[in-house]
Design a protein that fits this description.
147 residues, mainly alpha, two-stranded parallel sheet, 5 helices, 43% helix, 5% strand, Ptyr_pPase, hydrolase, cytoplasm
């Protein structure tokens, strides 16, 4: 299953941006999200994801984009949601000469050890809520580890 950059990653991006803002360190980060495919380029995030974020007081203006070769050279970390994303991104990184990005599962930071953040696209509102909660736990630890 390919990543579309309309469900999980915009939620993670918005959650991390809010945490970094609340911690007063947002200016130390360049925060973005991208897809491993170009299916939804330019699209807004899934309406259910936006509704979920809004219930937690978070807005996002994200538009779907594809991960580029430049991303591997300019970002320190590329965090992904599942094994399929991980292998796609590692393959892409191998074709980039000066890749410096550390590619990891966002779930590897989950204190509850839920390694995979499942795509809620074919699910219901509660699946988006689960993604949100996982992102909150993981982003909190990631931010603490990198402050």
């Amino acid at each position: 299953e390919a990543s579309r950059n309309i469900c999980r990653s915009p939620i993670a991006e918005a959650v991390f941006r809010k945490m970094a803002t609340d911690a007063g360190v947002v200016d130390k980060w360049v925060i973005d999200s991208g897809a491993t495919t170009d299916w939804n380029t330019g699209s807004s995030p899934d309406a259910r994801g936006l509704a979920c974020l809004r219930t937690h007081g978070i807005e996002t203006k994200h538009r779907a984009r594809q991960v580029t070769k430049e991303d591997f050279m300019s970002f320190d970390y590329i965090l992904c949601m599942d094994e399929s994303n991980l292998s796609d991104l590692k393959k892409k990184a191998n074709s980039v000469k000066n890749s410096k990005a550390k590619i990891e599962l966002l779930g590897s930071y989950d204190p509850e050890k839920q390694l995979i953040i499942k795509d809620p696209y074919y699910g219901h509102e509660e699946d988006f809520e689960n993604v949100y909660e996982q992102c909150v736990r993981c982003c909190k630890v990631f931010l603490e580890n990198n402050s």
